[in-house]
Amino acid sequence: MTRVKPFVAVVDDDTSVNRAIRRLLRSIGVAADRFGTGDELLETMRSIPSYRPACVILDVQMPVSNGLEVQRRLAAYGAPVIFTTAHEGVAERDRALAAGAIAYIRRPFDDELFIKAVRAAIDLVPRE
């Protein structure tokens, strides 16, 4: 049986942030796909049933659907969520964590803390 290496979906409308997060993930051997909006990710997951990231890294504030709305819609897929944000928002953090987010990390973040959160999220996903 072939083992599929887990991969992460990074959803952020800021291309430079998205690129930096994917570069950090690559440095620890984790592949990552880029999405500019949560709707792009959700459409991919809906249209390709086998597309299941081990973890979704979401920006909180994005155009169209914000991260909290995307998290709510992702619940049907069971993908662990890690939020990153440049904005201080205690209410958003509390809602995200109450809805099951693995972590809510403010940017700029400590790389080790972020990596620890990603590894914890990936370990939650059962492997075949």
TrEMBL record:
Q: Secreted: is it a keyword of this entry?
A: no
Sequence ranges assigned to domain Response regulatory in this UniProt record: 7-122
Q: Which residues carry this modification: 4-aspartylphosphate?
A: 59
Q: Kindly give the InterPro entries that the UniProt entry links to this protein.
A: Bact_response_regulator, CheY-like_superfamily, Sig_transdc_resp-reg_receiver
This protein's source sits in the domain of life called Bacteria
Keywords linked to the UniProt accession: Phosphoprotein
In its keyword annotation, does this UniProt entry include Phosphoprotein?
yes
Q: Name one GO biological process term.
A: phosphorelay signal transduction system
Q: Which Pfam families match?
A: Response_reg
Q: Which PROSITE patterns match?
A: RESPONSE_REGULATORY (PS50110)
The protein, known as: Response regulator receiver domain-containing protein
Origin species, per record, is Paraburkholderia steynii
